UniProtKB/TrEMBL annotation:
It is found in: Cell membrane; Membrane. The lineage of its organism: Bacteria, Bacillati, Actinomycetota, Actinomycetes, Kitasatosporales. The keyword Phosphoprotein does not apply. InterPro entries: TatC. This is Sec-independent protein translocase protein TatC. The Tat system comprises two distinct complexes: a TatABC complex, containing multiple copies of TatA, TatB and TatC subunits, and a separate TatA complex, containing only TatA subunits. Substrates initially bind to the TatABC complex, which probably triggers association of the separate TatA complex to form the active translocon. Residues 274-297 are annotated as: Disordered. It comes from Streptomyces cellostaticus. Keywords: Cell membrane, Membrane, Protein transport, Translocation, Transmembrane, Transmembrane helix, Transport. NCBIfam families: tatC. Residues 274-283 have a biased composition (Low complexity). Part of the twin-arginine translocation (Tat) system that transports large folded proteins containing a characteristic twin-arginine motif in their signal peptide across membranes. Together with TatB, TatC is part of a receptor directly interacting with Tat signal peptides. The chain crosses the membrane at residues 14-32, 78-102, 114-134, 164-187, 199-217, 223-243.
Length: 297
């Protein structure tokens, strides 16, 4: 298509994606309190609190954090942020399809196959990382709250808690995509499995450092909860890459045997070569040509 038609199609695809996000955001705005309760309930239960917008039950064995909202406009901005985040997440199938419908016509068949594989494996991996973060957060919150001195009381801003949960889910989900990215680089021939295997010491240290920075809790248990699955996924990616390298090498060897042919390097007599050259020489102009051109030319 011409450039103007491509830009027009891009505008229409973006408009449909944004419209889907707005519709879901408006619907989610009516249920934003339920969404907040769903997100914060595991964390609050782990630190001995049961928060349902005004109802607080405190356990005697552990410290309890009071959820606070600061400012007159804070409840409105909080509701808007929660509804918009829910709109982007829940409308993801629509705007992802619009993005795919714009890009897919320009891809070759093997590129589409790789894209389908990336989406098919990437989405469950992201969900697995987010689910792990959602289960690690309560233990992390308990460790952090228990560090509070006995004479102090915890005031936990609700917007900070929601930001922490969202960041942890996104970070854990993206971290689980790293092995898939390595496999895709191997399938495209950019990175070999043997080279990845040579990085295993650095990858173990690097993943541990990333987990220590990504998790808010200082305890090693939370760090290992993130690092251990990524270590396992990295070695799975290395194994898949090594198998793919062997398959690619075997296929190249078979193609070389089928297509290769030996060169005839036997020397020939000079006279034979001259005879062949003379026989393949172009014809000289005949009598019906003037200066090499006939009447039609």
């Amino acid at each position: 298509m011409p450039l103007a038609d491509h830009l027009r199609e891009l505008r229409n695809r973006l408009a449909k994606g944004v419209l889907a996000i707005l519709v879901v955001t408006v619907v989610a705005a009516f249920f934003y309190k339920d969404i907040i309760n769903f997100i914060t309930k595991p964390v609050l239960d782990s630190i001995g609190c049961s928060q349902s917008f005004g109802q607080l039950a405190k356990s005697k064995d552990v410290h309890c954090a009071h959820i606070t909202v600061s400012g007159l406009l804070a409840p409105f901005t909080l509701a808007l942020k929660v509804a918009l985040t829910a709109g982007v997440v829940l409308a993801a199938p629509v705007w992802l399809y619009q993005l795919w419908a714009f890009v897919a016509p320009g891809l070759h068949r093997h590129e589409k196959k790789y894209a389908y594989a990336f989406v098919g494996f990437g989405f469950p991996l992201f969900l697995g990382g987010g689910y792990l973060a959602f289960n690690v957060l309560p233990a992390t919150a308990k460790v952090l709250i228990d560090l509070t001195p006995g004479s102090a009381e915890n005031l936990l801003p609700l917007d900070d808690l929601l930001d922490l949960v969202t960041r942890m889910v996104v970070v854990f989900g993206l971290a689980f995509e790293m092995p898939l990215l390595l496999i895709m680089l191997n399938l495209t021939g950019v990175l070999s499995g043997q080279r990845m295997l040579g990085w295993w010491r650095g990858m173990i240290v690097g993943i541990a450092a990333f987990a220590a920075v990504a998790t808010p809790s200082p305890d090693p248990g939370t760090m290992l909860a993130l690092a251990a699955p990524i270590w396992a996924l990295f070695f799975v990616a290395v194994a898949v890459s090594l198998i793919n390298d062997r398959r690619r090498a075997r296929r190249e060897d078979q193609l070389a045997d089928d297509e290769a042919s030996e060169l005839d390097l036997t020397p020939e007599e000079v006279g034979e070569v001259e005879a062949v050259a003379a026989s393949s020489a172009p014809e000289l102009p005949g009598t019906d040509r003037v200066n090499g051109y006939d009447d039609v030319t």
